[in-house]
Design goal:
The structure holds two protein chains of two kinds. Chain A is mostly helical. Chain A is built from 47 helices and eight strands. Chain A is globular. Helix content of chain B is 44%, strand content 20%. In chain B, a hairpin with a 4-residue loop joins β1 and β2.
Chain lengths: 828, 281
């Protein structure tokens, strides 16, 4: 619980370090200094405006700052809250449970630094729900959080083949918040940085160390020193066990462990990162000794942070690596698979999700044996979709019988097996698996079975399947057949009628479509009307179009209104488009306004473009601004594109700046390309810098490719270096592909090698292809193997072909076919 | 208008098919602008009426152009293009070239340095693909669009879409570009359609790229951007890619890692059907 004293502290009364702001050690290593001077960057303005609006409108807001490690997220929030909400108390719950239990009143700042800590796992789901309730009920309220993009991706990822176990967290993180991207560079105002550096020796040292990459903030807070120590290797700064534990902790996180890594996993996996001498000489108490040393903060931050995930108070049981160090180790080990001990240790993973993630990581790296074991454990721990992955894997390693046994009665597993067989070209086996899936309750399997029969040219058998499905209450198969038979009206109509006969309103839509194709619009209207009456809201838009084709404008409007009443705005949007195409601009505008009133944010974009083409810039910008208020900056982007197309560079730049302010940098990237194309290299670089200030290096990367194509080697090189320094790992690889397309393979190879060094795993696969084409099969093997170890599924076939051509090993063909089914051995 | 400097427009038939329209300069320099453009428009319209469809407009005497002038040039191109013809430009002035390039019209017009090279290129082009063939291709494109409408499929910009269930929409991506390219120039219409659909509450999209030959980084950006928007609503995208060649390309651009990819639309629909949380059809 939060005690009374900490409860009412304002931001300035808190020790910023306790709120998660990193202290900056002095150049001589002295700690306990004041925070360095704060340098404003573009995102600060966005953040402050958002908080000010919350206070002014009595609103509740959840602002999430997303950016890499040590990019100054927490400091930005701290400074913004202190400046904008100086008298609001700042509440700082320690974990998800405290957050769930927190009693939060209005005019409070809820401080959720490293927000993923509150939202992971089962208690995280509870916390997300509690947070959602708070945002609904308490106002004004400012919830502020910070997160790495990786964590955001993980928490919001709609993972294929996986059940959604955290709907509230995802809803929160994908919908109900204002997201602000924080670049991990300090490139805003160079003169301000220089001036501040002149006042603060710590900043001066950091600026010097950061060089052209502008990673000043990271250097400020001591991360680089940690990286340097780890880079020395085992037995230098860190003892061999310490180095191994640290590496194992990062590996666990890299390969999918969501929360801090359990001690058991670390202990077992760490052995794999020690050589035989180190293992023999480490001593009995090697593990506690290593943990003790790693969790102690020396002059800088501690490399390992202890946490407790078991209930109750007591010794720590899990450990999280320092984030700056973690990012570094992730990059340098990106192309390496962990040792066999790691996969055994992986069994200690905290949740079924973690096990499943490890299983997937092993499978992607073609460690089939490890993957199967991990999936099996995930199934035992109740993971919803692990069985599907396990089944498909077993089909490869142990054949169809084993796979079918594994699928058991799980419809998801049977469907996955069927899809995998179908994409492998084995239709009869796929049909069989679909049949099992349908039997186990998979609705869509019926459609697949009917489709396969129809594709085989046996419509009678397809009808039989659809009839069976309909008898089981599933009209989908009839609709699928209707769609497949669209070219032949009567046959299609028959299928749709069958769907209608089992009460499927969508069958009427199909019939309307058949009638429309046959040119019988009144008949189509009739069917579409029935569909609408049956509750198919998509029918209203169709009615809008049909009535208009019949010249009945009044009924078209009525249909649009009918759709609106059924909460489907498509009819109005469509009517607007049709009126626009007929040259009825006022009518189009009115219809777009109706759609906008129904919550279609994109209607504001259309209104903006309409006004713009009418020459009314003020109205256009007003509409774009309105679109931003509905949460979408796309209207500004479209406006920027329209203006750039007309050659109005100043107007386009203004629109792009507005789009970027609202969170969409796409327009700056487009503008950078447009200016470069028009020969304005300087203007292009200015636009690219503005995109970079908002966190996107993509414009610089695009410039490097454009210049390469135009033959400007120097300009290309400058741009790719800039992109890479800004954090675009893939910039070199993309440039390499351009060079390859220009037939400059030597230069392409150099670019790929740079890409590999930057930690872009794709570069290894590209290099493998390049080597293989040149007949350098040994080098191709090495490159492909790194790509496979990095978890690129597409590189696997490349590795096998490289192995197959490797002369003069007579056994390689056999080796290849064995590898195909068994994968690589766990030991890399 | 008495004191205005006006270029004189003259034309000569180069061969049985090609006509060169020349804008003359007078001693105070010359601009193709609001004052002089109408004469060019009249000449072009008359030529097209007479069946002269392969045109070269020689602007080597011109040193400036305003939006009206550009409008007349684009209008002339549209006019002949519809009938299987084309319109090339001859430009020697740097400023003019810069204006054309800035307004992206260099992408629309073939621009040459002198009349002989323009004529030679056109002769070669039309030897390869004559007016009739071009007309047929244009008709085919129009017919495809008309077919889509007649088939009861919605048309939006270049693309078509069809709601398959309460949740799933099938988007057929067409490219206006003759090379089947979704690029910087053609991507915005796709983005706008996808954003519109998402705005209308369609959260499960099958994006059929069968007619697409090439997707540059802007095109990829549009798909990834749409996926981001969809995730906010628990939705997702499946792609349909038919040819091995296109698939290889998508692999390189990293799309295979982000999107489930299918060879035909129906399995993609079935896949998304299983992803819909409520699983009602």
């Amino acid at each position: 619980m939060l005690d009374g004293e900490t409860r009412w502290r304002t931001a300035r009364q808190w020790d910023p370090v306790r709120l998660g702001v990193r202290p900056a050690p002095g150049p001589d290593g002295t700690a306990d200094l004041l925070l360095p001077e704060y340098l404003l960057r573009p995102h600060d303005e966005t953040l402050r405006q958002r908080l000010a609006r919350t206070a002014a409108t009595n609103d509740a807001v959840f602002v999430l700052l997303v950016g890499g490690s040590a990019s100054g997220k927490t400091r930005a929030v701290y400074e913004a809250v202190a400046a904008i909400l100086p008298d609001w108390p700042v509440l700082h719950p320690a974990d998800a449970d405290e957050l769930t239990a927190a009693d939060v009143g209005p005019r409070t700042v809820l401080w959720l630094d490293e927000t993923q800590r509150y939202l992971s796992g089962a208690s995280g789901e509870k916390a997300a729900r509690a947070l959602g309730r708070l945002l609904d009920r308490v106002a004004p309220l400012a919830v502020v959080g910070t997160m790495w993009p990786e964590h955001l991706r993980r928490l919001t990822e709609n993972r294929r083949g996986m059940e959604d176990e955290s709907p509230h967290t995802r809803a929160l993180l994908t919908g109900r918040h204002a997201q602000i991207t924080v670049p991990d560079t300090l490139s805003g105002d160079a003169s301000a940085v220089a001036a501040a550096a002149a006042r603060d020796p710590r900043l001066a040292a950091a600026v010097r160390a950061a060089g052209p990459g502008n990673r000043v903030l990271q250097h400020l807070t001591g991360g680089p020193e940690l990286v340097h120590r780890w880079d020395m290797g085992p037995g230098k700064w860190f003892t061999a066990p310490e180095h191994a534990v640290l590496t194992a902790a990062v590996e666990a996180r890299r390969l999918g462990h969501a929360s801090a890594v359990p001690a058991g996993l670390l202990k077992e996996a760490a052995a794999g990162f020690m050589d035989s001498t180190a293992r023999a000489t480490a001593g009995k108490e090697w593990f506690p000794a290593a943990i003790g040393a790693l969790t102690t903060a020396g002059r800088g931050p501690a490399p390992l942070i202890a946490e407790r995930h078991e209930p109750g108070v007591g010794d720590p049981d899990s450990y999280r690596p320092d984030d700056y160090l973690e990012q570094h180790i992730r990059r340098v080990r990106a192309h390496r698979a962990p040792p066999a001990e790691f996969w055994t240790g992986a069994a200690w993973a905290r949740t079924a999700d973690d096990l499943h993630a490890f299983g997937r990581a092993a499978g992607q790296r073609r460690r089939y044996g490890c993957a199967a074991a991990l999936y099996e454990m995930a199934v035992e721990r109740g993971h919803g979709r692990a069985r599907a992955a396990w089944t498909v894997l077993r089909e490869t390693t142990d054949g169809w019988a084993a796979a079918e046994e594994t699928a058991a009665t799980d419809p998801v597993a049977w469907a996955a097996l069927a899809m995998s067989r179908e994409s492998g070209g084995d239709r009869p086996a796929a049909y069989d698996a679909y049949r099992h899936a349908a039997g186990a309750g998979d609705v869509w399997a019926w459609s697949a079975m009917a489709r396969i029969r129809e594709e085989e040219g046996d419509p009678a058998a397809a009808d039989a399947v659809a009839a069976l499905a309909a008898a089981a209450g599933q009209p989908l198969a009839w609709r699928t057949l209707g769609r497949m038979r669209a070219a032949h009206g009567p046959a299609a109509a028959k299928a749709f009628e069958q769907a209608v006969s089992v009460g499927d309103g969508w069958g009427h839509i199909g019939l309307a479509q058949v009638a429309e194709r046959a040119g019988d619009l009144p008949e189509a209207v009739e069917h579409a009307t029935r569909a609408a009456e049956a509750g198919v809201t998509a029918a209203w838009a169709r009615l809008v179009r049909l009535h208009r084709s019949l010249g009945d404008h009044e009924s078209a409007v009525a249909a649009a209104t009918g759709g609106a009443d059924a909460k489907n705005p498509e009819g109005w949007s469509l009517l607007a488009q049709l009126r626009d195409a007929d040259g009825d601009l006022p009518g189009a505008e009115a219809a777009h306004r109706e759609a906008a009133a129904l919550g279609v944010g994109a209607a504001w974009r259309e209104l903006a473009l309409l006004a713009e083409s009418d020459g009314d810039r003020v109205a256009a910008e007003e509409a774009a601004a309105q679109a931003v208020r509905t949460g979408d900056p796309e209207a500004w982007t479209a406006l920027a594109e329209a203006r750039a197309k007309r050659g109005d560079d100043a107007g386009a730049a203004h629109a792009a700046a507005e789009a970027a302010r609202a969170g969409d940098v796409e327009a700056w990237i487009t503008l950078a390309r447009g200016r470069e194309r028009a020969g304005d290299a300087e203007g292009a670089e200015r636009a690219a810098d503005l995109a970079a200030d908002r966190g996107s290096p993509a414009a610089w990367a695009a410039l490097s490719r454009m210049r390469e194509r135009a033959g400007d080697r120097d300009g290309s090189r400058r741009a790719v270096l800039r992109a890479a320094a800004l954090g675009a790992l893939d910039a070199w690889t993309a440039l390499g592909r351009v060079r390859e397309a220009l037939d400059d393979t030597a230069a392409a190879e150099r670019a790929y090698v740079r890409g590999c060094a930057a930690g872009d795993t794709e570069a290894y696969a590209a290099l493998g292809t390049l080597y293989l084409e040149q007949g350098r099969s040994a080098e191709a093997c090495a490159a492909y193997r790194s790509a496979v170890d990095a978890g690129l599924p597409d590189a696997w076939e490349g590795l096998l072909s490289a192995l197959a051509v490797q002369a003069p090993r007579a056994t390689s063909a056999q080796t290849v076919s064995r590898l195909r089914t068994t994968g690589l051995p766990a030991q890399g | 208008m008495g004191g205005q400097v006006q270029p004189k427009v003259s034309y000569a038939e180069q061969s049985s098919d090609i006509t060169v329209v020349r804008l003359e300069r007078d001693d105070r320099g010359s601009a193709l602008d609001i004052h002089s453009a109408p004469e060019l428009r009249t000449v072009l319209a008359r030529l097209v009426e007479e069946g002269r469809l392969i045109l070269v407009v020689d602007l080597s005497a011109i040193d400036d152009v305003d939006s009206t002038g550009l409008g007349v040039l684009v209008g002339g191109l549209k006019r002949v293009h519809f009938k299987g013809g084309t319109l090339s430009l001859v430009v020697t002035n740097d400023r003019l070239r810069a204006i054309l390039s800035k307004t992206a019209l260099t992408k629309v017009f073939r621009v040459h340095d002198d009349v002989p090279s323009a004529v030679a290129t056109l002769v070669a082009d039309y030897a390869e693909e004559g007016i009739e063939q071009r007309l047929a291709a244009i008709e085919e494109r129009k017919a495809r669009k008309r077919r889509a409408t007649e088939e009861g499929i919605m048309v939006s910009g270049d693309h078509t879409y069809e709601h398959v269930t309460e949740d799933i929409t099938l988007v057929n991506v067409m490219s206006r570009d003759p090379g089947g390219e979704i690029s910087v120039y053609t991507a915005p219409t796709l983005r706008e359609l996808l954003v519109d659909l998402i705005n209308q509450g369609r959260y499960f999209l099958v994006v059929d790229l069968t007619s697409v030959e090439l997707l540059d980084s802007t095109g990829v950006g549009v798909l990834v951007g749409a996926l981001k928007r969809l995730r906010a609503h628990d939705g997702t995208i499946a792609l349909v890619v038919e040819s091995e060649r296109a698939l290889k390309l998508f692999r390189i651009t990293g799309l295979t890692k982000v999107f489930p990819i299918f060879a035909t639309a129906d399995p993609a629909v079935e896949f998304l059907g299983r992803e819909v949380p409520t699983a009602h059809a």
